[in-house]
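We modelled the chain as a single entity of 344 amino acids. Its sequence is:
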Amino acid sequence: MNIDMNYVKDFMVELLNIPSCCGFTATAMERIKKEFDALGVETKMTKKKALIGTIKGECDDDQVLVAAHIDTLGAVVKEIKQNGRLKITNVGGFAWQAVEGENVFITTLEDKTFTGTLLPEKASVHIHSDETRNLIRTQDLMEIRIDENVNSKEDTEKLGIRVGDFVNFDTRTQITEGGYIKSRYLDDKACVAVMFGVIKYLKDNNIKPKHTTQFYVSNYEEICHGVTVISDEVTDFLALDIGTVGIGHTSDEHSVTILAKDTKTPYDLELRKKLVHIAESKNINYKIDVHDHYGSDASACITQGFDVNFACIGMGVDATHHYERTHISGVENNAKLLLEYLLY
């Protein structure tokens, strides 16, 4: 089994460089559609503009749905201040200190993009001394300094910037010689790239999955309503999402995580057993983990009342919802488990 990991890595980096804050995913979805088309996968778009690509399997019954999400954390302009700077409101769950000092891209309704930086209102220790050091970072105390000659609310409004404009954060993507991948939003673009790496393998080798498989790229996962269309033929729902690496968790950056439970629910036991059996029989490095303060497209669907078996897997990622890091070996183990599951 030789999944093209250079393809996975290159596609991941390309996706990471396309801004796609939740609610602002049209450009990323256009790129996803182009890739489905290039691989010869028939697609349909949901009313909420998610994409579903379907590959016929050896069996058309008991279909499988595999989902990964293209939307990321981000923000929306909430207020234009009298000094011309911007107050914002978060989209998705992140801590303000996780994005302090980050470069941002503000996109207007006319599709003009302006750059800026997210800072605390009292950013300089030369001016504010211990106030800067001790300031609690909250939405009300953070602002965007726009990289334009603006000194008033009117100056900013003349640029075409309005309340409601989307704000995307710079991902600062880097890959080290040792195989570490550092970036914002590996959650979940690393998993989207894994999905397409597996699709490419199936297509390149003219292999059918065991069951007809629907590959669902969702666009509202970060705010808990990503997958809202599941056909009656689907029996198993496998979400691809990141494993959280840290104190009290078993996940690591070199393995694929198989979730046992998240904030919302335990995952289906029989499907988890199947995934563990596949990983062990195919010598795929894996960890079983329980994630706090976490949900996936699969667990969100279950709490909405969908009647499917459900599981979640993903490469281990350090510093999730911050400046994240994983390793190419973890990405590869994720791809291997997904492929073997589809062929099982």
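As a brief sanity check on the tokenised model: The chain has two domains: 5-72+185-343, 81-169. The longest strand covers residues 59-69.
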